[in-house]
Amino acid sequence: MKAQDEDREIIKALAKVSKSLIYVSLLFVACLIMIIVSFLDNGKGADAEAANPVAATYKPAAVSAITASGGPTPLPTPPDAWKAPEESTIPAGKAGDMIRYGKELLVHTAKYFGPQGSVAHLTNGMNCQNCHLAGGTKLFGNDYAGFISSYPKMSSRSGKVESASERIAECFDRSLAGKVPDTSKKEIQSILAYMKWIGKDVKRGQKLFGNATEKLAFMDHAADPVKGKEVFIMKCQSCHGNNGEGMLAPDKKTYTNPPLWGKHSYNDGAGMYRLTNLAGFVKNNMPFGATYQSPQLTDEEAWNVAAFVNSRPRPHKDQHNDWKDLNKKPIDFPFGPYADAFGEKQHKYGPFKPIKDAQNELTNKKS
Ligand code: HEC
Ligand code: HEC
């Protein structure tokens, strides 16, 4: 009798176990199917990109399956956020011609000033627009909204008050790793005319949503070039080349996808050589098509890939005259001497919070 009861219990238990086993395996199969389906989708996206890495078409990032979080949720764009004036409102006549020519020079800089430029051979073959996206109209893409209204301006880098044309010349000298152009000539005057037109509705000191690039939250550890290399291979290499050399257009004079390092890239005195600028730019604009509202990298991936890109060789600029006032030196300027006790490596890759805290302490002591 007792033995029979025990048997019954055992059979019941076995039935229970096998039922659960069936449920678990059903769940497992369902998961497997989901994974395979999403994998196939991803693959399709990647194939399409590989077949046409040329990024002339602006594809919304939402199409991608790798939309990432990894930072605070982006703020909605406020309704009164800056918007560039409509092209159709550029005036007719001479004044308008200058504005249009100025824009043309920013968009196709290499054609005029590159190694085979038609006006002069001053620059490395990149275009201003490579970093100042959409002619300097894209929020969080180094837009020019607040530029003209804030100049002339005291530059802590050069230690003097600079005019707008001097600031423009600096990007020739650093970001385009080139020579300073003659700012009295028609070309720079036209660029200025475009800048004035684009920023005509902005008042001096006005707070601007999306100005320059996003300041990403600091990580509590240093950015990691080794992990960044993985990100580069997965998400950047197809356009920017195996060695970051970019991709020339069929005319061999201009780039379809600009270089990220090497002798044709920005030099180590450029704004992009500072990690906070590069990480913020990459987070909201790369892979090409990403936006502030739909980024495709986590903050950490953006910091790491920026660290990788800026760990690679590039032209050097003598900067011993920059940031003479050490207290004004940006926390991520990777060349000493410093007012604080942190070394060049930490100033290059972080962690930045301790540096920021030390800097705040110094300024508090003084005031
Ligand atoms: C490699 C990327 C890159 C290229 C190419 C580039 N710039 Fe810049 N530019 C930057 C960055 C980054 C900043 C902000 C740097 C900073 O202030 O620390 C900047 C700042 C500026 C500013 C100041 C903006 C402001 O609001 O104060 C002007 C003006 C400017 N660039 C013009 C140009 C022009 C004109 C060209 C082409 C001749 C050009 N840039 C090419 C990266 C670039
Ligand atoms: C689909 C092609 C594509 C992919 C993928 C891509 N980029 Fe770009 N990238 C571009 C193009 C095109 C520009 C120039 C934009 C313009 O001129 O309007 C650019 C510009 C840049 C610039 C500024 C100009 C320069 O050369 O210094 C940086 C920095 C950059 N990309 C970094 C990255 C990083 C990092 C990744 C990977 C996370 C990445 N890009 C992925 C196409 C791409």
Describe the structure.
- This protein is mainly alpha-helical and 367 residues long.
- Among the domains are: 87-198, Cytochrome Bc1 Complex, Chain D, domain 2; 225-366, Cytochrome c-like domain (Cytochrome Bc1 Complex, Chain D, domain 2), CATH 1.10.760.
- 43% of the residues lie in helices and 3% in strands.
- The protein has helices at 2-51, 93-107, 109-113, 133-136, 164-173, 186-198, 225-235, 237-240, 275-285, 299-311, 344-349, 353-366, and strands spanning 153-155, 160-162, 247-248, 255-257.
- The strands form two sheets. It has a two-stranded antiparallel ribbon with strand order 1-2. The protein has a two-stranded antiparallel ribbon with strand order 3-4.
- Strand 1 and strand 2 (160-162) form a beta hairpin.
- Helix 7 (225-235) packs across helix 10 (299-311) and helix 9 crosses helix 10 (299-311).
- It is globular and about 105 Å long.
- It binds heme C (2 copies).
- Residues 53, 55, 127, 129-131, 133, 231, 235-236, 238-240, 257-260, 266, 272, 282, 286-288, 297, 305, 309 line the site of one heme C.
Question: Per CATH, what is the topology of one domain?
Answer: Cytochrome Bc1 Complex, Chain D, domain 2
Could you tell me the number of beta strands?
Answer: 4
Broad structural category: mainly alpha
| Residue runs with pLDDT of under 50 for 5 or more positions | 40-67
Average pLDDT, rounded to a whole number, is 88
Q: Main beta sheet: strand number and arrangement?
A: 2 strands, antiparallel
CATH C-level class of one domain is Mainly Alpha
Rough outline: globular
Order of helices and strands: HHHHEEHHHHEEHHHH
The CATH architecture classification of one domain is Orthogonal Bundle
CATH superfamily of one domain: Cytochrome c-like domain
